[in-house]
Amino acid sequence: TSTSTSTNYSSASAGSTKGIVLPPFEIRLLLVCAQLLIYYQRFDLPKDTIRACYEYCKEFKDELEPTYWKKVSLEFVKAMREVAVAVVVPVAVPVINEECDKNLVSEISGVGDCNENKLKVDI
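Above: the chain sequence. Below: its structure as tokens.
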């Protein structure tokens, strides 16, 4: 089986802690960034974070298997497209009337004027 890094850092048998050689911090961070990009849909990452992860992966791409690097790159492109679409598409937020529960009103910040059965669109 292939690994995500080009170097095998574990020399211990399964379940044993003796003989384990941990990868350097830079490689561990590389794998974290790569996983964040591959599973970006599970996280609510800002665009700057997505880009920073990609830039870090790009800097150390020689440490990754070529197929894994391609997957990271592809997911980066997908993530950036989704972020761009999310910025353009407005989100409808229900606006509540004055008779609404005061606790609910205090939880919703910046809703604006209360008008029954209307929607406020925030961009």
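Residues 93-123 have pLDDT under 50 and may be disordered.
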